[in-house]
Amino acid sequence: MNELNAPRWNLDTLFSSIDSDEYKEALEGWKTGIEKLENLVKTASRFNFGFWLKGYLEEQDRVMTLAQTLRGYAYIIYSVDTTNTAYLNNIALIDDLSLKFESVNIGFKAVLSKNAKKLDEFFERFPQFLDRRYILEEEIAETKHQMPAKEEALAGALQKTGGDAWDRLHEQIISNLKDPESGKTFNEIRNDAYSADGLTRRKAWEKEKALLQQNEIAMAACLNNLKGETVTLNGRRKWKKAIDRALASSRMDKKTLNALIKAIEKSLPSWRKYFQAKAKYLRKNNLTVCDARDENDKLEKGLAFYDLFAPMVLQSEEGEKKSSLLEKKWTFDEARAYVIARYDSFSIEMGDFARKAFSEGWIDAEVRPGKVGGAYDEDFAMGHQSRIMTNFTGTFSDIITLAHEIGHAYHFYCLRGKSVCFYSYPMTLAETASTFAETIVKQDMLKKCSEDDKLQLLDMDLQDAAQVLVDILCRFYFERSVFEEREKGELNAQDFCRLMKEAQEKSYGKGLNSERHEYMWAVKSHYYSTGLDFYNFPYAFGQLFAAALYQRYLSEGSEFSKIYSSLLASTGSMSCEDLCSLAGFDITDVEFWKSGVELYTKKIDEFIELTKGKSTAVTIKPGSFPETVYDKASAKASEEKKTKKAKNASKKVENKPEAKGGLLKKAEEMAKEAEGKPLPVSEPVVIEHADAVDFDEDFQ
Predict the structure, then answer these.
(1) What CA–CA distances, in Å, run from 379 to 65, 392, 419, 424?
(2) pLDDT for residue 287 is more than 80
(3) Residues 598, 554: Cα–Cα separation, whole Å
(4) One-letter-per-residue 3-state SS of 296-364
(5) Is 259 left (phi over 0), alpha (psi -120 to 50) or beta?
(6) Cα–Cα distance measured from residue 582 to residue 413, given in angstroms and rounded to the nearest whole number
(7) Are 311 and 456 spatial neighbours (Cβ–Cβ below 8 Å)?
(8) Distances (CA, A) of 407 to 167, 334, 412, 559, 573
(9) Sequence-ordered list of residues with C-beta below 8 angstroms from that of 568, at least 6 positions apart, any chain
């Protein structure tokens, strides 16, 4: 335990250790189960198909329960003790067994496909398996996109030195990139995108792009060959396009994807207004060093790429303290109470589940050496239980993370009583419960926080949503164009940069200024995995689906909780379209997705209003002047322009009695610097921004 009282989890209801008798027994049960299933596949032709399938499915359930539990356990114990060699060796053992299990599963699908016409008779004779029709028919459909067994085996073997090798090379390049000047790793540099200091963000952006450019040949070779392999194998497996394969794995129709994309595209003008409003606010409050200008030397309205995650936190005068829920240091007990209360507000069942997760030791939240970063939820078929890992530091974002991961666990809880085969649901639906839980917490906080906190919280929410909608749309455009061009020939770094620029322009548009990031193709790791083509749109689906559900909850109240839990319970047993129709949603209609977008467009409108005319205090740190955007005495500007702008600023202050004090002082300082007499800044200077002054106009 630490000072925040963040707990470690209790794993006793799973296994006490990998050396325990119960763990060894489960491992042995998995091994023998695989052998039994393998033997059943080999001897399938000797038995009546109906009786054979019944026996296979029953044994498969038992083996899948062990496999899913052992895989999950192997990972979670390693994730909190990554230096433990025994845990690493255990993962290797689990991976080997998983490969054998998958090989048997391919054989099962072949038998199933061969006897597809006998399924109706099977369901008539054994109606207890009728709910598996969709899954079994899906497995039969998958065989239509498989090469002959020997070719699939060869492709799998070659992937280790093909696609997987290119993926590892990219991973090794990224993980070993380091800035020679600061010694920071590439990931540390990327984390600077969240810095409150504008100069730090811009320098990190410059260094990140420079490091990627230095390694562009190798990374472009990785991406070119990976996508080439996918194009080749997709052709052999009879997939017309890579997107078709992604849609099949998402259990989603192309009509739904088109409606989703169209809804996001229609929302782009609102998102661009958000980006521009944030850019204006950052300039207005000296929170950025961006001074990008167009060909007419006018300040560009869009947001710099390096300011996308800029925190909108204003520094107060020394000694002044403000009450802030966002800046409050939360103990874990306070976080627990807050999450449970928010879950209760939706449904008592959901609140009781959260109590269970906390009270039964399902959560490991303590930060400690050897533990991986981030957060996740892992679900276990054995005992139908979950475990949640977070790194709790006492911030409000940690509370949102807790709510998110417990939301995943609640989703699994809703599947209780079902066969283990239903525990696997597509990514399109995997983020629904977690995003919905997040939304409940954020919306509650927005009702309670101060205006300053509300602005920050709205920005946090909008920048997250923008990544899932706008940036993922950008990634979708990029990957689609990559596949289209890769089918025609080889691609190099310049090609990828060109395609990324085009995708950013099509999605972000005037929301960003000219300071963009054409090397984002080299950053996103999912581009480099052969099994994750179009990894992006399922997240947009989940975000807007959860938003649409929340909108319906607002209109229907607590009664909606029953529909919600029923919806989650069915996620593993049907297509996205059929699932949503149960709740009365037609997700092939763009109007459905617009209802989810509406939640964010309302927030954007509120955000823009909050950024207008705020009276704020900004601390300029010693030495930072004249680096701010309001200091027009930059190296680019002539002495004549500087003098003229300073005089204009003085005149505007004189003509606006309400803009007195700090603003006049600012104009005087600019005039002095224009005369070649820089004002020494030895102590922080606080500039009071008057409500009536539009800084964009006054200091352009």
Answers:
(1) 11, 20, 14, 11
(2) yes
(3) 13
(4) CCCECCCECHHHCCCCCCCCCCCCCCCCCCCCCCCCHHHHHHHHHHHHHHHCHHHHHHHHHHHHCCCEE
(5) alpha
(6) 19
(7) yes
(8) 31, 18, 9, 19, 20
(9) 410, 411, 414, 415, 432, 433
Q: Of 278, 287, 198, nearest to 611 (Cα)?
A: 278
Buried b (16+ CB within 10 A) or exposed e, 300-311: bbbbbbbbbbbb
Q: 103: Cβ–Cβ under 8 A, 6 or more apart, which residues?
A: none
Q: Write 53-58 long-range contacts (CB < 8 A, 24+).
A: 53/112, 53/115, 53/122, 54/122, 54/126, 54/129, 56/108, 57/129, 57/132
Q: Which of 462, 461, 452, 439 is nearest to 511 (CA)?
A: 462
The span from the first CA to the last CA of the chain, in angstroms, equals 54
Share of the chain above pLDDT 90, in %: 63
Q: Which two tokens stand for residue 649?
A: 């600023």
Residue with tokens 């492709």: 155
Q: How far is CA 332 from CA 8, 18, 327, 374, in A?
A: 12, 29, 15, 17
CB 155 within 8 A of CB 164: no
Give the C-alpha distances (Å, rounded to integers) separating 592 from 541, 547, 602: 11, 11, 16
pTM: 0.80
pLDDT at 112 over 90: yes
Residue 521 has pLDDT above 60, yes or no: yes
The pair of structure tokens assigned to 600 is 């964010």
Q: In what order do the strands lie in the sheet with 376-380?
A: 363-364, 385-389, 376-380
Instruction: Look at phi and psi of residue 534 and say left if phi exceeds 0, alpha if psi is from -120 to 50, else beta.
Output: left
Angle value at C-alpha 432, between 427 and 435, nearest 5 degrees: 115
Q: What angle do CA 254, 255, 260 make, to 5 degrees?
A: 95
Place of tokens 């007195």: 660
Structure tokens at 282: 């950052």
Rounded to the nearest angstrom, the gap between the alpha carbon of residue 578 and the centroid of all alpha carbons in its chain is 26
C-alpha gyration radius of the chain: 28
Nearest Cα to 422, choosing from 570, 571, 567, 572?
Answer: 572
C-beta separation of 335 from 399 below 8 A: yes
pLDDT tens for residues 537-586?
888 998 999 988 998 899 898 889 999 999 999 998 899 999 999 878 89
Residues in CB range of 331: below 8 A, 6 or more apart:
4, 5, 394
The one-character DSSP state at 471 is I
Is the CB of residue 493 less than 8 Å from the CB of residue 220? yes
Which residue in this structure is represented by tokens 């999912």? 526
Exposure of 666 in the CB half-sphere (CA atoms within 13 A): 31
Residue 261's Cβ-count burial label (10 Å; 0-12, 13-18, 19+) is middle
Compute the mean pLDDT over every residue in the chain, rounded to the nearest whole number.
85
Distance CA 511, CA 470 (A): 10
Q: Decide: 380 and 8 in contact? Cβ < 8 Å.
A: no
A 10 A CB-CB count for 682 gives 7
| Residue whose tokens read 């960003």 | 512
CB atoms within 10 A of CB 242: 21
Q: Name the one residue in this structure whose structure tokens are 């533990």.
A: 371
Interatomic CA distance for residues 330 and 332, integer angstroms:
6
Crossing angle between the packed helical segments 49-79 and 21-42, to the nearest 10 degrees: 150
- Reported residue count of the chain is 700
Say how far apart CA 530 and CA 527 lie, in whole Å. 8
